[in-house]
């Protein structure tokens, strides 16, 4: 579920979305997510679910094999124009794209999503988790960065999180309960101050069994 009414509709434009992310500090939060949670290595095969205009590709090692998947044709076309052959960019979602072929063959080392799960209902989240599990090699990881309701969150932060386009924001325990239905190992780190604006979120790292 996503609110695309009023001013939210402008975020469907790739240029507006990217500018908004930079102004509120989301790019810095995502770079930290890449550095500390995804921890990409040259040669890794990486699938980005809900990639948007694929802005996170710019912060991954050039030697990574990257596939970006998004339901927005405008976002995918923007990614293709900017990054060309550096990645593979597909229009679709984890329900329509049952299997992804990463350059070089074999499974993915990392499947990740940033700001996606809080747009989805529980059944859709399970679909994303099951998709990730199928794509990953043994010992591979699914990583997520999400808006969240956290203990100790200020009233202003709760109000700001409530204005997010995604309407299925969860607590850490709720994210964990969904992830543990698919992955045996789930590690969550809450963050009360991830952005320049009052906000709250978390990162999640799930390990596929070896």
The portion of residues assigned to helices is: 25-40%
Radius of gyration: 16 Å
Annotated CATH architecture: 3-Layer(aba) Sandwich
Mean pLDDT score, rounded?
90
Strand content: 15-25%
Pick out the low-confidence regions. Answer: 1-8
- Secondary structural class: alpha/beta
What characterizes the major β-sheet? 7 strands, mixed
Number of domains: 1
CATH top level class name: Alpha Beta
Report on this structure:
With 210 residues, the chain is of the alpha/beta class. It has one domain (6-207): Rossmann fold, CATH 3.40.50.150. It contains 6 helices and 7 strands. Strands 3-2-1-4-5-7-6 form a 7-stranded mixed β-sheet, sandwiched between helices. α3 links the parallel β2 (65-70) and β3.
Looking at this protein, list some descriptive labels.
210 residues; alpha/beta; Rossmann fold; 7-stranded mixed sheet; 31% helix; 23% strand; disordered N terminus
